[in-house]
Design goal:
22-stranded antiparallel barrel; globular; single chain
């Protein structure tokens, strides 16, 4: 028998130092104890300037999720222990806090918010008030993120930040997201922003072990655990991160506890999903037979023979789209607890999500847990730990474009084939799809991945002298992903192998150690803020791939049961970064602000002659509204002008494997040899990569001009920014003499420019018992390539785009479609002089005016509140981008084969004089498969992105329920999409290419938030 001592959190200040490190289980159990007796507080909230009651004011017990909203007459009622802090906040009003003693009635007067710039934002290695910040940064309203049915943080940012363009790559559960901030600035390096979570930079972008799946590691972060998200955009805000910040920085902080009673929050959400658009469909059986008969006859097949071939087809009328697409489901459950005392506080959470995708066989299950703790050892020393564990399991298919992929198969398989034969077995006689059955592939085969992640850090903050603070941050990001694949011997995939099993994994360990020394002091009208820092990072990756075949049964799927081993390989890689940085901020009379930043980085990725590089910025701001000459303009409450200029870098060099998948290339500058060139049974090596000791970072030089204003008592505020971002020393593969043994080497030879405008507006349109607020953001960006190697264009065959000096990077380069000849229905293209030709070989590819990047994009959010009811509506759209619909080359085949086609083929040419855009159908025709502008489509779209209707139960109801707050809500995500794009979904094509993609989902969900 053992004895366990349990302590109340209120007694922690009595514990010796050796008992401070409390096990996670003990911490969770301790949250069940009540620390102080609850008091019932009531009161009335009024406006200080006019004395009228204020409805809709949020009253929160600080450090908890417990809160209420004042009623029509400004009255509120809430329970809280003595010593707690009540925070009162409302749009357009200055937040107010009061510490409870023994009073049970607290009346509050709120002042109009006439500054609008007192918000504290998280910036590089610290915090800053928005008023004293000279850079460009946007803060996301995290409550708007938490309820959205998305799998990762960056997906919830869509439409929330000007300058931030996000697009979900695929609707597959757990898939990644493309994120571009202020335009594409690189060709062969990553375009992903740098993500910082509680001071730890984390791995992002597509991660894959070997074969089919890419995943975004950000999916391991639960949105409801996040306190704030700050997007840093210009050099003044990002250059302190130096070599990694050219694509912007997204700083994420997670929630912390505070002194007071332990508070719990339980939230759940149940949703149903379907594909985002229904604007695409294929032929049914009568239509299919009609077109096949017609294409045979047009090819010279006698009528009777063509008719006989039609009779040989079955009479099934299978809708393979209906067989593959389904109504998906989504379940989310979150439990959080927070509390503590004046010496120690905590925040813990557990989260579970189960999502079934809109395509059969696709699903995701995620478990995650978080524990954040803060301990005040003495008045000058504070310690903290942030940690999260997550496990994600995803099942799916081989990927777009594979015959075994359900989405691809649903396009191709003719409706005349049944899913199962008469004896109940899966039908595997489908020649048009290499005998793959769209349904059986998800039942017989097993394809997917699982990932495990730990993200955590330890911090120590010491303030030995007044104004002087030292902080240590030690963090670790551990990520493991394992892909598994089993092809059943009964399926077309595994039949030839007699069963095939494969496992591939990647393990990444990233360490970071950061030391900063910060000195802040005020001398009369002078404010000084000096930061010095040093940082070291190291990343190690280890990957494996194993494969086996000839399995005794489909019930034995692990590799050890196979009789014919095929592959066994491992790979180990690593990189490191050492850094020194500083910043100096100076403010005079609260009017004039100057910020200087510098950083020096040394990276193992680059050549011996350029291992180190310097980055820096200078920024200034002028509070014009604080000048005497602004006094007559009483409608302007605050007006600030900002300007900055500086540099940042990009060290994330991408390589591409034989299948075109990107990966982090850590050794681009090195001279490398590879083994495998065996001879006469002995191992041999050969030259793999030529050394380039002069290889260096891509560098961005950014200039930013911004104006912030607040007017009419805080009811209207906004920001306008102009920026120009010039990238030089682009990392490009440059041709070299083949006498070296290779044909290309990576060099710094190109340049690119992005410039644009951002607009962000917030307005309180009605502020009475009924409230109406609106937020609007708009971004227009222009991209241009300004230099290449010898100014020679670079053509990308995979996207049909060409980088050309003077043009946008992602400009399409294609032969031009000439339409259909009305006389005989033949396909036409245009030659170099723009004349129609029937011979595709005479068509000339030209650089077009169409590009993958949008001209502009933006979002509008309107929120309406009345007596506890809140309705929020978000619209999001982009305009001016084009998409090459590569799938349509096969779905508009004009008779090349007998696979199914889209319904637009019903508009084909049939008689002399017909005016149509679809050529005559001829069996064996190749006109449909020719690359041209025929398949270049307008990718613009407008989405009714989100609708959320919520109701906060009144105080008298929740009091009877013995809880602190209860909210119920209904939401719709991707509710409706307007687009001219003919594929399943225009989103997910930021690179301008669509290829049998898994569409995003429209989701309808019911949810509940309970505080107790």
């Amino acid at each position: 028998m053992c004895q366990t001592d349990l302590y109340l959190l209120s007694d922690l200040n009595e514990l010796p130092m050796r008992k401070i490190i409390i096990p996670f289980v003990f911490l969770t159990l301790s949250t069940l104890y009540v620390q102080a007796q609850e008091m019932h507080i009531t009161g009335t909230i009024t406006r200080a300037s006019q004395g009228d009651p204020l409805p809709g004011v949020t009253v929160v017990v600080q450090g908890t999720s417990k809160g209420v909203i004042s009623d029509f007459e400004g009255r509120y009622s809430i329970s809280a222990p003595a010593g707690s802090v009540l925070k009162f906040s409302s749009v357009g009003m200055v937040p107010f806090e009061v510490t409870l003693e023994q009073e049970t009635m607290v009346n509050v007067q709120l002042k109009d918010d006439i500054t609008g710039l007192d918000e504290v934002i998280v910036v590089g290695y610290g915090t800053s008030s928005k008023a004293s910040f000279v850079g460009s940064a946007s803060v996301v309203n995290t409550p708007d993120m938490k309820a959205r049915p998305v799998s990762s943080v960056e997906k919830s940012l869509q439409g929330m930040i000007p300058g931030l363009l996000t697009s979900t790559q695929s609707g597959t559960p757990g898939s990644g997201t493309d994120v571009i901030l202020r335009g594409v600035g690189s060709i062969n390096a990553s375009t992903d922003p740098l993500y910082i979570v509680d001071g730890v930079p984390i791995a992002t972008g597509d991660v894959y072990a070997y074969r089919f799946y890419t995943t975004n590691p950000l999916a391991s972060l639960e949105p409801s655990d996040i306190e704030s998200v700050t997007v840093l955009k210009d050099a003044s805000a990002t250059s302190i991160y130096g070599a990694r910040a050219s694509n912007g920085v997204i700083v994420i902080t997670t929630r912390q506890g505070s002194a007071g009673k332990t508070h719990f929050n339980f939230s759940t959400q149940l949703g149903r999903s379907r594909r985002v658009t229904d604007n695409f469909d294929v032929l049914n059986t009568p239509e299919y037979k009609e077109l096949v008969y017609e294409q045979l006859v047009n090819a010279g097949v006698p009528n009777y023979e063509a008719y006989a071939r039609i009779l040989e087809m079955g009479n099934e009328n299978t809708d393979w789209m209906d067989e593959v697409f389904r109504t998906g489901t989504d379940q989310r459950y979150n439990l959080q607890a927070s509390g503590g005392n004046n010496q120690m506080n905590f925040f813990v959470s557990g989260n579970y999500r189960n999502q079934q995708g809109v395509v059969i066989g696709s699903d995701m299950e995620r478990y995650s847990a978080r524990a954040n703790m803060r301990y005040t050892a003495n008045p000058w020393l504070r310690l903290g730990v942030n940690s999260t564990l997550s496990y994600v399991d995803v099942n799916g298919s081989s990927g777009p474009g594979f015959y075994s992929d359900p989405v691809t198969s649903a396009y191709f398989i003719p409706p005349v084939y049944p899913v199962r034969t008469a004896n109940g077995e899966f039908n595997h006689h489908i020649p048009e799809n290499l005998n793959y059955n769209a349904v059986s592939a998800t039942v017989l085969d097993n394809v997917g991945y699982d990932e495990k992640r730990y993200l955590g850090n330890f911090t120590a903050e010491a303030t030995p002298l007044d104004g002087l603070a030292y902080k240590f941050n030690g963090g670790m990001d551990y990520f493991y992903m394992g892909e598994y694949l089993f092809w059943n011997p009964k399926s077309p995939s595994g039949e030839g192998y007699k069963g095939y099993s494969e496992y591939a994994s990647i393990e990444s360990r990233h360490w970071i150690l950061t030391h900063t020394l910060n000195y802040k002091k005020t001398f009369g009208n002078h404010d000084l803020d000096l930061l010095l820092g040093q940082e070291a990072q190291k990343t190690n990756e280890f990957s494996t791939r194993l494969a086996n075949s000839k399995f005794p049964s489909d019930r034995f799927v692990t590799l050890v049961n196979g009789a014919d081993p095929l592959t066994a390989s491992t790979l180990q890689e690593g990189t490191s970064l050492a850094s020194f940085f500083t910043s100096l901020g100076y403010t005079l009379r609260n009017k004039y602000i100057v910020q200087l930043t510098g950083r020096r980085d040394g990276s193992s990725r680059f050549g011996a002659n350029n291992r180190w590089a310097n980055f820096g910025s200078i920024g200034a701001a002028w509070h014009i509204s604080n000048e005497a000459f602004m006094d007559p303009l009483t409608f302007i409450d605050d007006l600030k002008l900002r300007v900055s200029q500086g540099t940042s870098g990009n060290q994330s060099i991408l390589g591409y494997d034989s299948d075109g998948n990107p990966y982090n290339d850590y050794y681009t500058a090195m001279g490398l040899y590879q083994f495998g060139a065996d001879y006469n049974g002995e191992p041999g090596s050969q030259l793999y990569q030529i050394e380039n000791p002069d290889l260096r970072w891509e560098k961005n030089a950014t200039t930013n001009l911004g104006i912030d204003w607040v007017s009419l008592g805080g009811r209207f505020n906004g920001t306008v920014e102009l920026y120009q971002k010039n990238t030089k020393d682009l990392l490009l593969l440059v041709p070299i003499s083949v006498t070296t043994g290779l044909d290309v080497v990576m060099k710094n030879v190109g340049a690119m420019e992005n410039k644009g405008i951002e607009l962000e507006l917030e307005a309180v349109l009605v502020d009475r018992s009924f409230q109406w607020t609106m937020g609007y953001n708009f971004t227009a960006n222009k991209n241009k390539v300004t230099a290449l190697d010898n100014n020679e264009p670079i053509y990308d065959a995979s996207t049909r785009q060409q980088a050309t000096v003077g043009k946008p990077y992602r400009t399409f380069y294609l032969p031009r479609w000439g339409g259909v000849n009305p006389a005989d229905g033949s396909a036409l293209w245009l030659d170099a002089d723009g004349r129609p030709v029937m011979d595709y070989n005479q068509a000339e590819a030209v650089l077009l005016s169409y590009k993958a990047d949008p001209d502009f994009y933006g979002s509008v959010v309107q929120t309406f509140r009345y007596k506890g009811i809140t309705l929020s509506v978000q619209w999001y759209g982009l305009y001016g981008n084009s998409i090459y619909n590569n799938s349509d080359r096969y779905l508009s085949s004009d008779g090349q084969g007998t696979a199914n086609v889209d319904r637009r083929q019903l508009e084909r040419w049939m008689h002399e004089g017909d005016i149509t855009s679809v050529p005559i159908r001829v069996d064996g025709s190749t006109s449909g498969n020719k690359e041209s502008t025929r398949y270049l489509e307008d990718g613009s779209y407008l989405k009714l992105k989100n609708i959320t209707l919520s109701y906060d139960l009144p105080t008298k109801v929740i009091t009877k329920l013995h809880c602190e707050g209860l909210q119920v809500y209904f939401l719709a995500e991707n509710a409706y999409t307007w687009t001219h794009f003919t594929g399943l979904d225009p989103e997910g094509s930021l690179k301008g290419l669509s290829w049998f993609k898994y569409p995003n989902a429209k989701t309808f969900a019911l949810g509940m938030n309970l505080n107790f």
